[in-house]
Design goal:
The protein is α+β, with helices and mostly antiparallel strands. Helix content is 26%, strand content 19%. A five-stranded antiparallel beta sheet has the order 4-3-2-1-5, with no helix packed on it. A five-stranded antiparallel beta sheet has the order 9-8-7-6-10, with no helix packed on it.
C-alpha cells in the first residue's frame, strides 16, 4: 500500500459526508410517504391495500437506514485514518547507544551542567524508576506511513479545504500552574521531584541550574514553601558535606506526577515543539529537550505484569538529534513556579 495523501483522505471524507446527506434526504422522503399513507388510512381507504404499501415503505426505510449507518461507519474510519496520519511520528525512534557499565556522576565534577546537555556530562547514573531501562518498548499498534508531499500540476483543480480545523491544544498559564501546585501543598514525604542540585554539591561553586531526580524528605516546620530533600541516587563513595540531603525552598522544586494519582498530573499536554525539562534515559539527570510527538500510550509485559506507559518522544539538546522516549512522569515544564 502506497503512502497516504492527507488531502486525498480529506476529499474522500467530504464525499462520504455528502453521501450521508443524500441518504438522510432519502430517508426523510420515505418517512414522508409513510406518514401520508397513514393519513390516508384515517380517510377510510381500504386497509389491505394500505397495509401492503406501508410494509413496502417500511422495508425501504429500514434498508436506507442500514445504508446510512454503513456510510457513517466508513466516514468515521476515514477520519480515524486521517487523524492517525497527522499524529504518526515523522521519524523512527533511535535506541540509546550502547554504553559501558553506568556509574554515578561525581558531585564534584563542575565541568558540565546536568540541566544543560546530555553529551556534556560525565557517566550517567541509573534511573531508579520504571522497570524497563532506556526507552519504553515500541508501540504495539502500527501507524500509517508518512504521507509524501505531491506537487500539483498548474492545471490541477483547487485543493479542498479541511472539513474542520484541528483542535487547539490547551496552553497552561502561570496562574493555572500555580493553582494546580497550591492544591498539592504541602508536598508529602516520598514525593518524587526534579530539584536543583545542592549548592554544596560542586566544589568550585553552586550548581544552581542543575536539576536532578530527588525526593521529599519532610516539610520544614509546617512551612509549605520549605522542604528537606534528598538525591534519589546519592553515592556514599562520592560523599558531599550534606550526605545527599539538604534543605531548599519550593522555588527550587518541580513536583513530578505520581502514578496512580491523577491529581498530580497536569491537565494539559506538551504539543510538538514545546521546550521541556526531562530526565535523560538511564540517568537521574534532567536536561533541556524539545517535544517531537506524544504523548504516546505504550503497553509492556504480559498477563498480570502487563502495564501501560505514556511517553513523550523528545530530542535532547546536543544529542545529535537522537529521538528518545521518556515517560510523561519524567517530563516537566522547564521553569519552576
Amino acid at each position: 500500500m502506497g503512502p497516504l495523501d492527507p488531502m486525498q483522505l480529506t476529499a474522500q471524507v467530504r464525499e462520504s459526508l455528502k453521501a450521508c446527506l443524500m441518504h438522510s434526504a432519502a430517508i426523510s422522503a420515505t418517512a414522508s410517504t409513510a406518514n401520508r399513507l397513514q393519513g390516508e388510512a384515517a380517510q377510510d381507504r381500504p386497509l389491505g391495500e394500505l397495509g401492503e404499501q406501508l410494509d413496502q415503505v417500511y422495508a425501504v426505510l429500514g434498508q436506507q437506514s442500514q445504508d446510512e449507518i454503513r456510510k457513517i461507519d466508513e466516514t468515521v474510519a476515514l477520519i480515524d485514518a486521517l487523524e492517525a496520519l497527522y499524529q504518526a511520528p515523522t521519524r523512527e525512534s533511535t535506541p540509546a547507544k550502547a554504553r559501558p557499565p553506568l556509574t554515578k556522576k561525581r558531585k564534584t565534577d563542575s565541568s558540565a551542567s546536568r540541566a544543560g546537555s546530555p553529551t556534556s556530562s560525565a557517566a550517567a547514573s541509573p534511573m531508579p524508576m520504571y522497570g524497563h531501562a532506556g526507552s519504553p518498548p515500541a508501540p504495539v499498534a502500527a501507524v500509517l506511513p508518512r504521507a509524501q508531499s505531491v506537487k500539483p500540476s498548474p492545471a490541477a483543480a483547487p485543493q479542498p479545504l479541511p472539513i474542520a480545523p484541528a483542535p487547539i491544544a490547551k496552553k497552561p498559564t502561570a496562574k493555572s500552574r500555580k493553582d494546580a501546585l497550591l492544591a498539592q501543598l504541602p508536598l508529602r514525604p516520598g514525593r518524587t521531584i526534579a530539584v536543583k542540585e545542592s549548592k554544596n554539591a560542586s566544589a568550585s561553586g553552586p550548581a544552581s541550574d542543575n536539576y536532578i531526580l530527588g525526593r521529599i524528605v519532610q516539610c520544614l516546620q509546617g512551612d509549605k514553601n520549605r522542604y528537606s530533600v534528598e538525591d534519589v541516587d546519592y553515592d556514599p563513595a562520592n560523599p558531599t558535606p550534606e550526605g545527599g540531603k539538604w534543605n531548599t525552598t519550593l522555588k527550587s522544586i518541580i513536583p513530578l506526577p505520581e502514578k496512580g494519582d491523577e491529581r498530580t498530573y497536569p491537565d494539559y499536554d506538551f504539543p510538538p515543539g514545546s521546550l521541556v525539562l526531562a530526565c535523560y534515559p538511564e540517568t537521574t539527570s534532567f536536561y533541556r529537550a524539545t517535544v517531537e510527538s506524544g504523548p504516546h500510550t505504550l503497553t509492556f509485559g504480559t498477563g498480570k505484569k502487563k502495564g501501560i506507559q505514556k511517553t513523550y518522544r523528545l530530542t535532547f539538546d546536543d544529542d545529535d538529534g537522537q529521538l528518545r522516549d521518556v515517560p510523561i512522569e519524567l517530563v516537566c515544564d522547564p521553569t519552576p513556579i
